[in-house]
Amino acid sequence: MTSHDVVVRLIEPDDFAAVSRLTVAAYRADGQLDEDHGYGAVLADVVSRAEAAEVLVAVDGAAVLGAVTFVLPGTKYAEVSGDDEAEFRMLAVDPAAQRRGVARRLVRACVDRAQALGCTSLTICVREGNAAAFALYDQFGFARDPSLDWSPAPGVDLLGMRLPLQVLAQ
């Protein structure tokens, strides 16, 4: 597989089981479910996410390689986005498909979607210590924004990042 073979599209019901599996596997492999706090069940519940948000998948043919949840402020899965912003959450790439540009494609799709909707910025929260995620988001121009920092559970510190967007002319 090359990154040129990867297509990002909206999730379909046939993708739900694969996205559930790969999301939990990716978070577990990254050490983010060591002290679960019930988050593993949230990650596995793709049906609820797809009903309340836009879940995008990266696929190579029939193989689902990764997924991300794109949300707008005030919706069920929104955590930190404010007016005129979008955010993305639960970015996960199957451990067997990592280091192949899949995460980059998913982030690019979120940036493009936010711009198409006229959002002024895009936000993400990253678990403290996740150097790979910070490096990826830095490449897109995301900058740390401590006003977005929060802790959903004891010992789980999330650091906010924001990307200002150029609003596209309609």
Automatic annotation (TrEMBL):
Superkingdom as given in the UniProt entry: Bacteria
Domain N-acetyltransferase: residue ranges: 6-166
Family annotation (InterPro entries): Acyl_CoA_acyltransferase, Bact_Acetyltransf, GNAT_dom
Keyword Repeat carried by entry: no
Alphabetically ordered keywords of this record: Acyltransferase, Transferase
Keyword Lipid metabolism: no
Pfam families the record matches: Acetyltransf_1
Protein name: GNAT family N-acetyltransferase
Organism from which the protein derives: Dactylosporangium fulvum
